[in-house]
Design a protein that fits this description.
By secondary structure, the protein is α/β, with parallel strands linked by helices. Helix content is about 30%, strand content about 25%. It has three domains: about 1-125, Rossmann fold; about 130-220, 2-Layer Sandwich (Transcription Regulator spoIIAA); about 240-440, Rossmann fold (3-Layer(aba) Sandwich), CATH 3.40.50.150. It is built from 13 helices and 19 strands. Strands 13-12-11-14-17-19-18 form a seven-stranded mixed beta sheet. The longest helix has 21 residues, at about 130-150. The relative contact order is 0.08.
């Protein structure tokens, strides 16, 4: 409407045709050659496509620019094209070689105007973006889609830095993709890693057929303590997913993590199978997904402890979603280490998945899982019923259990890491560690 009003005010409205359409359906408006050998009509195309301001907008814009580039090669061969943009990265997604480019300003915003001549053989010469990555992703999907459907899960990892040059993890949540870029080595130029990421996102959209607006892009760096739980935005995006019959809320946009650690899926399933008629404790509980599985498995009571009010509220929402409500389900906001040192109740089944490291201001002391795990387990021994079982997990690479120290406290441990690593995480042998711990005098065949 504004464009029409401007044209009318300028006295050129009679020279312009206005049309609203999707760029993915862009086609040449000029009649093409009717007879072979007849000269085709060519013209000039000018565009100022959206460029976005936030990282989260990039996947959809990548799709737009990829579609625009495809349309230009397909239907506008021989045309001249001029495109104005403030994002050289998005312009690179057109996969066109500019004849000239100019640096200019749109107000205070620095932009580039790039001029292209679309080659007559451009369609034939165009190669698939990130072909090696695309082929690997197709291979992964062929196996994992059938497996996930059979397992009854709709959240799983489809790629995890399988190829070193494409250093990211990609998780599927129903019809959404979450792309988490790992921090690149310092010796690799930032521009190169950024371009590889954009290529990877473009290829993932094309291979999976996902809507670009349902692709969430995040940058994952080495985190300490609670940093992985920091909020990324003030939006509220929540969706329900299924996992072995459990219904769970996830948030794909607002936090670096989504509220569901996919690599612990088998562990949660195991806890559900072990929980019948058991008093269950979930310590460092995050959003309480393990509590949900235990409750659905028939736990007589549950206690969920975490320092974050946000995640305890999330855990209660997860329990309500599964109709698990009542006084038998307790939620405790506390510094888990302090709570543990003062607690005296007995539990038949305990799950603890502490952070690798934490120095939160709300904790009295710092915590390092390698340094402090024996202290942690000594406290838990006091709470573990005579015939009880403790499932201890953590995500520290190369974690080493202090077996001698554990034995001295009257506990014994069985490493079940391999058993709890899901199919979609088979390649990542360091994704987590998991142990079954019991009192030393408990019979070996007891569960």
């Amino acid at each position: 409407m504004k464009a029409r009003d401007n044209a009318k005010a300028a006295g050129v409205a009679h020279l312009i045709t206005f049309k609203q359409a999707d760029v993915t359906a862009l086609d040449n408006p000029l009649p093409q050659a009717a007879v072979e050998g007849e000269a085709r009509q060519v013209g000039m195309l000018i565009s100022n496509p959206p460029y976005g301001e936030r990282l989260g907008e990039f996947p959809a814009l990548l799709e737009v620019h990829q579609a625009l580039g495809d349309a230009l090669r397909r239907s506008f061969q021989g045309w001249r094209v001029s495109i104005l943009s403030a994002s050289p990265e998005l312009l690179s997604c057109l996969r066109l070689r500019a004849d000239k480019h100019y640096r200019l300003f749109n107000g205070a915003l620095e932009c580039q105007l790039r001029n292209y001549q679309i080659a007559l053989d451009s369609v034939a010469s165009q190669k698939e973006v990130a072909q090696d990555f695309a082929n690997r992703l197709r291979k992964n999907l062929k196996t994992l889609e059938k497996w996930a459907s059979k397992e009854g899960i709709d959240c799983y990892r489809i790629y995890d830095a399988d190829l070193p040059e494409y250093n990211a993890a990609i998780d599927r949540y129903q019809d959404y993709l979450v792309v988490q870029e790992y921090a690149a080595p310092k010796d690799i130029p930032a521009q190169k890693t950024r371009q590889r990421l954009l290529d990877m996102v473009q290829a993932a959209i094309k291979v999976t057929g996902m809507d670009g607006e349902k692709v969430i892009l995040k940058v994952r760096e080495r985190q300490e303590g609670k940093q992985q739980y920091q909020k990324l935005s003030t939006e509220q995006h929540r969706m329900e997913v299924q996992e072995y019959g459990a219904r769970l809320w996830v948030n794909l946009y607002d936090y670096l993590d989504t509220g569901l650690f996919l690599d612990h899926r088998q562990t949660r399933r195991m806890l559900g199978e072990m929980a019948k008629n058991k008093r269950f404790l979930n310590l460092f509980a995050y959003t309480g997904s393990a509590t949900v599985h235990a409750a659905l498995g028939g736990a007589s009571e549950t206690t969920t402890v975490d320092m974050s009010y946000t995640y305890l509220d999330w855990a209660q929402d997860n329990m309500r979603l599964n109709s698990q409500v009542g006084r038998q389900h307790k939620f405790v906001q506390a510094d888990c280490l302090k709570w543990l040192s003062e607690a005296h109740d007995q539990y038949d089944l305990i799950f603890i998945d502490p952070p690798t490291f934490s120095n939160s201001k709300r904790m009295d002391e710092s915590f390092d899982v390698q340094r402090d795990h024996l202290m942690l387990l000594q406290h838990l021994k006091r709470l573990l019923a005579v015939d009880g079982t403790l499932v201890f997990s953590n995500n520290k690479r190369h974690f080493k259990m202090d077996l001698a120290g554990l034995e001295a406290t009257g506990l014994k441990a069985q490493n079940i890491t391999q058993k709890t690593r899901p199919k979609d995480f088979e390649r990542n042998v360091h994704i987590h560690n998991c142990w079954l711990i019991t009192h030393a005098d408990k019979p070996a065949d007891a569960s």
